[in-house]
Amino acid sequence: MSHNVWGILCMRLKKDQDTDARMFSLSSDLCFVGSDEDCYVRIPDGGVAGKHCLLTRDPDGHVWLTGVDSHKIFINDTPALDDLILLQGGETFYLRAEEEPSTSVIEITFKKVDKKSYSGDNLNLVKNQTDLEPINPGDKSRQSEIAKDSNVTSILNIKSDQGLTSKLGSDESVMESNLTCSICTLIFFECCSVQPCLHSFCTLCYLQWMALSDVCPVCRMPVQNYAKNHQLDALATLFVTQHPDKGRTNADKEEIKKEIQRLSSTIRRIPQPQSTSSSFNVLLPGCPVCGYVSSHYVPNHGSTLCPSHNICACCSCPVPSLIRHQSTVNLVQCEICCRSFCALLSTGGCPGCSGACLLLLSDLRNMTALPSDLLLRNTVETSILKDYLAEKGVPVSDFIQSCLDNIDPNLFGASGPTEQSPVCRDCSLQFLSKLAYQQREAIPRHELPVSVTARPDCYYGRNCRTQRTKMSHAHRYNHICEQRRS
């Protein structure tokens, strides 16, 4: 924080125009004004919010005024609606909690300080109380004291250096909170705002969200458009400049910009025919192969839009109905459930899930851990299998490869999937669960602990539904068996 004074606030109660104004010098780049104890400029008045407004100075020396949360700022009895207001010096604005002009409480005039005229050497900064108090015109001694100080001084809202550090930390914490993306919980980078609600996010975060939903992540209002918010982006850049540890690395920034460009190229703006009262365009994703965009809202299910396109079941973008690989494999469709996906077509995978919604069965061997409910959605039986593999020193990848090498044709039929078959995430886990059950069933009983083999078989075997909801039942009975009771 710089201790050079760059501005002065002259304050008075609007209803007491005959009262001398109180003067507060501004030397921090972030100055909150309000009634809270930790505000840089404290105004203990019931009509002013705890943190009512914020004055910031950027590296270029520009001074900006912004309201905090929903608190009102009025210029000439007119509400200031802009997020940020550039102050040139000499502006007068008002702080009040209500919208009626009669409830104005504080009149503030901002004056810029010329460094040549006001420097640390010729400013006799006086530490004084920071409460805004009207001065009695009849108090000659008080008026004389103020007049003496006002020649070349201003009154700081600082109790001590330690108190100043505490205030700055609190102010910066509030600033960081307002500049944090609610999706990634990091400081804005390439900030954008959505319309009409005007909530703001990192552009990449919102593009990834938009692939999944067409509503605002904060208020759930339908989004009609989005655009870069240059003011918030500049404020976030200023904050990161002052706090380098809060920012991203140059490599991350370059990667994010490339990803934004890639995702933006798949988003097309098309007219919304069913809307006659708004000029906004609806954003729909395009086909990753040919760029085709549907002229209607994309349904959530996989119905056909036209003879050459289907709908990705994950991100809802149009995808070609057939892309052949090795003359027989369709890289768009899951061979088990027959739903369509775009994960194997886009360079970066499906934007809805980073490419994990469709994969080749052979890719299952890249798993580093088995799901906790892999066997029959029973965590107890899965834990027994994991313990056995750990005792035998069998890596997860080797176990999965063993499952793939021993696919039972009778289990899925003659046209069942092979290692090179594309399957969706849900079907791949169900497929692996059936193969893992076969492997677990083939383990000799003498290789398992007595605590496992001593359990009686459940009457309903692997079809038991209680095993998934009652842990005590799953522990007490063995479910790696067939059903014996209907």
From TrEMBL:
Any one GO CC term of the record: PML body
Cytoplasm keyword on record: no
Domain of life: Eukaryota
Record field: catalytic activity: S-ubiquitinyl-[E2 ubiquitin-conjugating enzyme]-L-cysteine + [acceptor protein]-L-lysine = [E2 ubiquitin-conjugating enzyme]-L-cysteine + N(6)-ubiquitinyl-[acceptor protein]-L-lysine
One Gene Ontology term from the biological process aspect of the record: cell division
Main location: nucleus
InterPro entries with a match to the protein in the record: CHFR_Znf-CRD, E3_ubiquitin-ligase_CHFR, FHA_dom, SMAD_FHA_dom_sf, Znf_RING, Znf_RING/FYVE/PHD, Znf_RING_CS
Keyword Cell cycle: yes
Cellular localization per UniProt: Nucleus, PML body
Pfam families for the chain: FHA (PF00498), zf-CRD (PF17979)
PROSITE patterns cross-referenced by the UniProt entry: ZF_RING_1, ZF_RING_2
Entry EC number(s): 2.3.2.27
Metabolic or biological pathway: Protein modification; protein ubiquitination
RING-type domain span: 181-220
Key words of the record: Cell cycle, Cell division, Metal-binding, Mitosis, Nucleus, Transferase, Ubl conjugation pathway, Zinc, Zinc-finger
GO terms, molecular function: ubiquitin protein ligase activity; zinc ion binding
Family: Belongs to the CHFR family.
Protein name per Swiss-Prot or TrEMBL: E3 ubiquitin-protein ligase CHFR
